[in-house]
Amino acid sequence: MEKIMLASDYQEGAHPAIMKRLVETNLLSNAGYGTDEFSESARNRIRTACACPNASVYFLVGGTQTNATVIDALLAPYQGILAAESGHISVHEAGAIEFGGHKVLALPHHYGKISARQLEEACENWLSDGNRDHMVMPGMVYISQPTEYGTLYSRAELTAISEICRKFNLKLYVDGARLAYALSCPANDVTLPDLARLCSAFYIGGTKCGALFGEAVVLPDPGLIPHFFTIIKQHGALLAKGFVAGLQFDTLFTDDLYFHIGDSAIRAADKLREAFTEHGYPLAFDSPTNQIFLTVTKEQQDHLDSFAVSSFWEKPDEDHTIIRFATSWATTEEKISQLIEQL
Amino acid sequence: MEKIMLASDYQEGAHPAIMKRLVETNLLSNAGYGTDEFSESARNRIRTACACPNASVYFLVGGTQTNATVIDALLAPYQGILAAESGHISVHEAGAIEFGGHKVLALPHHYGKISARQLEEACENWLSDGNRDHMVMPGMVYISQPTEYGTLYSRAELTAISEICRKFNLKLYVDGARLAYALSCPANDVTLPDLARLCSAFYIGGTKCGALFGEAVVLPDPGLIPHFFTIIKQHGALLAKGFVAGLQFDTLFTDDLYFHIGDSAIRAADKLREAFTEHGYPLAFDSPTNQIFLTVTKEQQDHLDSFAVSSFWEKPDEDHTIIRFATSWATTEEKISQLIEQL
Amino acid sequence: MEKIMLASDYQEGAHPAIMKRLVETNLLSNAGYGTDEFSESARNRIRTACACPNASVYFLVGGTQTNATVIDALLAPYQGILAAESGHISVHEAGAIEFGGHKVLALPHHYGKISARQLEEACENWLSDGNRDHMVMPGMVYISQPTEYGTLYSRAELTAISEICRKFNLKLYVDGARLAYALSCPANDVTLPDLARLCSAFYIGGTKCGALFGEAVVLPDPGLIPHFFTIIKQHGALLAKGFVAGLQFDTLFTDDLYFHIGDSAIRAADKLREAFTEHGYPLAFDSPTNQIFLTVTKEQQDHLDSFAVSSFWEKPDEDHTIIRFATSWATTEEKISQLIEQL
Amino acid sequence: MEKIMLASDYQEGAHPAIMKRLVETNLLSNAGYGTDEFSESARNRIRTACACPNASVYFLVGGTQTNATVIDALLAPYQGILAAESGHISVHEAGAIEFGGHKVLALPHHYGKISARQLEEACENWLSDGNRDHMVMPGMVYISQPTEYGTLYSRAELTAISEICRKFNLKLYVDGARLAYALSCPANDVTLPDLARLCSAFYIGGTKCGALFGEAVVLPDPGLIPHFFTIIKQHGALLAKGFVAGLQFDTLFTDDLYFHIGDSAIRAADKLREAFTEHGYPLAFDSPTNQIFLTVTKEQQDHLDSFAVSSFWEKPDEDHTIIRFATSWATTEEKISQLIEQL
To answer: Most buried by CB count within 10 Å: which residue of A64, B8, B110, C284?
Structure first.
């Protein structure tokens, strides 16, 4: 029997609504590099969804690429970016930020999150250090929503971070690789208009949220990055067939699809969390979105591995491992039931 | 009436065979980052097509990204890359090669091509220069097949270039963004096995040759680039859903599709070249593949613009412009007939 | 007998006035990183000499370092720098500009010089190119005074270039590695105040003009490069003992030393040019400063090599070589007489 | 009265023996770029002192420049460097390592030191991480001897670190900015031949150890970095007047000067440590070389500031500050006595 694959939220293709439109429009001729009508329509729908009619919107391909390109575009060459030491840019992008010449100024995290207070301290420490001109100047803050631990920043927390950023003249950038799973989560109170109001830049994840690929960068201040098109090209991140990305986001932002595409994933994750707990698989930490982290013994892991595919997260001690299951828009109720049956 | 769009070969989606398989497999669960079965199958088919069973094959997203990543991976930090001054990396990649720290050592071109003799001279000049240790060392040769001018290197020419590369210890890299249109061209005598035999690295273009996106990098010597996976990630070029690229190339290399996908484009281009010439629109230069370059007067251009979309190529003098039409696998006979009727 | 060394203008130590002050002040304790009193005095003297009381002045170590640091600081990441293809940054800096991520946009030169007209054309070509957003944007012009060929820009030429730069919003940067030899040359009409008035940035060469090492960067607009201190540090160009550079420039700008330190070198070069010509060693081209370029036959070169050390410049044809002699502030009349005697 | 300056060990010029030779040889003509006889002699003396007759030796200008150049030359583009989070490259080089594209993989330090065990763990963690191909690969270890805290690695500790490096195929690089003060310290048991035997690369500090400027890079394996000359040039670190650096190191390695140039600094530092302790200024931590770190109250700091110049180190709590005094080869007994009198 085939194993139940729940190792990640980028295992399947695209939401059927996207596939349908890709097929329907497949042989139409479009202008290149995102100057087509689908992309323009998608940009307008995103502006509306963000309540930010003047925002600049760009479609890139993947998360690491988007982070590296936006961060490099927004930082001065001598500036670094403050981020949780667990942040994607800190650990899992193979040094893409450093490839662009910038230091990631890593801060201790609390289940993937950093606080306004930590950021304030980091800035104050830099400012009060007599050697600060020999140091990397903090120029920006990176957070992810949801975080790599599946946790969420509240609107109050994000507002506090945004205020610190304004106080210290830092850009604020939010990595929304899994943003749909935040938007579908009852515990979440941060909206797209909140992000547009509080951030310098953020991206709305497509790859993990229903698209074949694609991330939509939103710059609420349209003049924030002059020549960003050329910067995207220089970073190798410009799609010739930009219309393929544009059409996907146009679909995701039609009939509020993006706001509900994560609903079933959240329900499935809640169900899994409950079932794991009941069956004696303790949650490693509380995490309300589409990722489930379990602290398992060797025996428990072997049992789970016999019928399901999860992914390694970390090794807290000799006898235990933290593993991760991830649900997505494509996870069926049947899959979840099958897994629970075998616990 | 809508204009006849022939501005580029990346205007439409994907070959119907690709769309069919994307739809059929859409909800299957796959491993990430190109470790899936479709990608593995595609790699094997490409190895077979190249008669190079040990080759390493990687799937990236677009041409500039592929060039920047491969070139950076193959050059030592202090080396530069010899290329035609008309080469894509020389002019139309927004400095992506320099972003990686490397100088493009540009040579005069002959309708997009450079010769073994030019390369030999460049290397001898560097070697015999008393200040060579203060100069950028040539480490690699970049050519495109077909070239940006639609012209082709013959097997004899490519062999001569390859020999010079071996003589001076240069890597040889071929940009095959439009490779299908070379393979479908009667004038062409360079095969995939030839490329695998003569080059250090080359890529088989997908974006312009039937895929939604994607380029397949072939490294005939599988050990040529240690840790290339990590380098791809560092360049922001690693697809989470690598299976989407893999599946497309798997389809392109099933039933010899890639070898014939350009056939109709070449026939269409030949027909257009004949029609344009007959109607007094002189070819700017001879070019046997899917691009047609015309030298037109202002009046001619206005007439063409009234019913067709071409692209600007260059301005040889005050009174003339060179424009480009491009056919593709998606160009219908009907489209060509409509255009010819209105000449 | 020892050969007469005239291979370069960086063969000897420092002007005796500099050595004297270095010895006198050797054991004084100074603040670090250029915050000492000698450096402050030197900055003020340079501001006065440039008639630019608000200029920012920084001391770096060498020419390539200075070029790479200033150019990287002044260009946006996606911009390139227009320069003569014979310019030092184009050929003899081992790709240091590309290491910083920028393309050198090389233009054909006329004995080391480029013209306002060429620059205007380059900018117009970029602006009128439909693909300009895929290309490297010209952001700056680099010229050297005197040029690598020993030639000089006139004030009229420099003014014309400066006007083009303002018209197209380009920075103008002048490499003054040998500036003292321009200032001492009767043919020169460009003063330090002219440079301060016409340029965005320039550097006053020390290494080749009387110092052990050191180049003084002048930014007429003091706010042009925020955090330049940190940028210098990031480029590895910040001297811990900045006072050693400061003291040298303080001496060079005391009693007009810098304005006359090249006088004897120019006289010596004139004498050599006359003697070579009389003895049948033709000048390769006319060059009024401290470098002498001869086109010699194999026999002539052998004869010269038997008693003098020159340097290789280039090989115009099979039978001839262009070689270079360079005089400096340290070249004695005796040395010149000895050389002429043996012609 | 002038304050007693003990803020750093780079406040004064050069050791009198160096100044003497610079003056004596000032007007001799030398070959450029380190190809002169003084540099060759210095290289040979250093090879002898290191008991490493085949070592490659290069002279660069300053510490940050040397670190950035050597590290960039030794790492593959996708590799990072393990270092103490207090290491100079981690905090006080303004991101110079990241400018070259590399991540500093910072480890917690114990008074400036890291241990073989920490390095082993870091490597094992990377190796055992299922996502390691998405992470920065450790390629090198950076330590400083003495450390930024003035502490020393013992030969046993360095040997253990070297063994871990060999085990995990890491380069080992030692920053010897203050190496003379280690060599003069009774507590030290690491010799130059030990460094040559245990390291991939290290540099012998000149700037802080008796020279006007200059650091000597030693590569025990002469073939370790092909084309290092060009790499140095590309990093803007090549001195035209290389003979000025060569002559200084030639002097430092004549008559064992380098081995004793720090003796008086160590004696002075010991005396200061004793006096401070006696007068109720507690040492922040134990540190046997030429730096003295005190934890002082506001009142104590004000008193010290009234007659001496120290430098800020860090702020452990609201009421205390850690300050640093540094002695050097140039510190006179008189200066120390004056300071002690006023405690």
So the answer is: A64
Q: Best interface-test mutation with D: which of A97, A132, A136 has the largest number of D CBs within 10 A? A: A136
CB atoms within 10 A of CB B317: 7
C146: cis peptide before it, omega within 30°? Answer: yes
Do residues C117 and C82 lie in contact, with contact meaning Cβ atoms separated by under 8 Å? no
Q: From first to last of its 343 residues, what are the pLDDT tens digits of chain C?
A: 689 999 999 999 999 999 999 999 999 999 999 999 999 999 999 999 999 999 999 999 999 999 999 999 999 999 999 999 999 999 999 999 999 999 999 999 999 999 999 999 999 999 989 899 999 999 999 999 999 999 999 999 999 999 999 999 999 999 999 999 999 999 999 999 999 999 999 999 999 999 999 999 999 999 999 999 999 999 999 999 999 999 999 999 999 999 999 999 999 999 999 999 999 999 999 899 999 999 999 999 999 999 999 999 988 888 999 999 999 999 999 999 999 999 9
Bridge partner residues of D84 (DSSP): D107
Q: How many CB atoms lie within 10 A of CB C130?
A: 10
Task: Write the residue in C7, C23, C32 that is nearest to D23 by C-beta.
Answer: C23
C-alpha–C-alpha distance, residues B273 and D74, integer Å: 54
Task: Give residue-wise pLDDT tens across range D11-29.
Answer: 999 999 999 999 999 999 9
Nearest to B77 among D78, D229, D231 (CB): D231
- Cα angle C271-C274-C278, degrees, rounded to a multiple of 5: 140
DSSP symbols for D132-185: GGGSPEEEEEEEESS-TTS----HHHHHHHHHHHHHTT-EEEEEETTHHHHHT-
Question: Which pair of tokens denotes residue A50?
Answer: 């963000």
Question: Shortest CA distance to C104 belongs to which of C112, C116, C96?
Answer: C96
Which residue from A186, A334, A195 is spatially nearest to A263, judged by alpha carbons?
A186
> Which chain C residues have a beta carbon less than 8 Å from that of B315?
128
DSSP string, A165-179: HHHTT-EEEEEETTH
d(CA C290, CA C329): 10
Beta carbons within 10 angstroms of residue D280's beta carbon: 10
Which residues of chain A make contact with B230, given a CB cutoff of 8 A? 94
Q: Which residue of D has its CA nearest to C309?
A: D31
Of B98, B106, B135, the CB nearest to C101: B98
**pLDDT tens across A160-186, in order?**
999 999 999 999 999 999 999 999 999
Cis? peptide before B146, omega within 30° of 0: yes
How many Å separate Cα C16 from the centre of its chain?
22
Give the HSE-up count for residue A90: Cα atoms under 13 Å, Cβ half-sphere.
21
Give D303-310 contacts, CB < 8 A, sequence gap 24+: D307/D1, D307/D3, D307/D4, D307/D339, D307/D342, D308/D3, D308/D4, D308/D5, D308/D6, D308/D339, D308/D342, D309/D3, D309/D4, D309/D5, D309/D6, D309/D7, D310/D6, D310/D7
Contacts of C91 in chain B (CB under 8 A): 135
Across the interface, whether the CB atoms of D104 and A103 are under 8 A apart is answered yes
> Per residue in B190-199, pLDDT tens?
999 999 999 9
Residue A209 has what DSSP assignment? T
C27 CA: distance to closest CA in chain D (Å): 5
pLDDT of D221-248, one tens digit each?
Answer: 999 999 999 999 999 999 999 999 999 9
| Spatial distance between the Cα atoms of C245 and C66, rounded to a whole number of angstroms | 14
d(CA C66, CA C57): 12
